[in-house]
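User: Structure please.
Assistant: Input sequence and predicted structure:
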Amino acid sequence: MTFFTQLIYALDAEILKANGALEEVLMEYAGIERRTCIRFVIPGATVNYWLKKPLLSKPSFNEEFCPVLDISRGGLRFLTREDLKIHTQITLEVSIPGERIPLELQGQIKWIAPTEESGYKQQIGVQFHPYGERKGQNYPGSLVKIIALEQKFAPADQSERDQSATDEFETDG
């Protein structure tokens, strides 16, 4: 674990302690991998994003063509030049080379880490909202597309491990 990662964890722990929620996330900071979704890289994928704004304002991108570091059924990690805040609601438009229509997904920024990539300030970890037909949920077809991309780009040993998880996935919370 790098110094910066330890620092982010320590700062998050202080914030959570102040909010009385430290007990809920102790396992996360103990270095236990809690992700159930396979993370995979899509070479050349980029993301445009905008942050949640007041109801009557027209949405416009805060930043475009940010490199996607990895993606999974549950979230996305990308680089940004902006200073973003944890817990911010975000809409993502993910462009995938060879695909005509980008994936549009909604989520929440769950973590932020500094990056050493030239020209970028932060790595951003976004957790997608659930998939379903209700307001605020992501279109279930996006999940189908991510699963197809996972089968195409994920390392073979990881895809086989997660094959049974598709049968158990619930789209309506």
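Residues 19-29, 159-173 have pLDDT under 50 and may be disordered.
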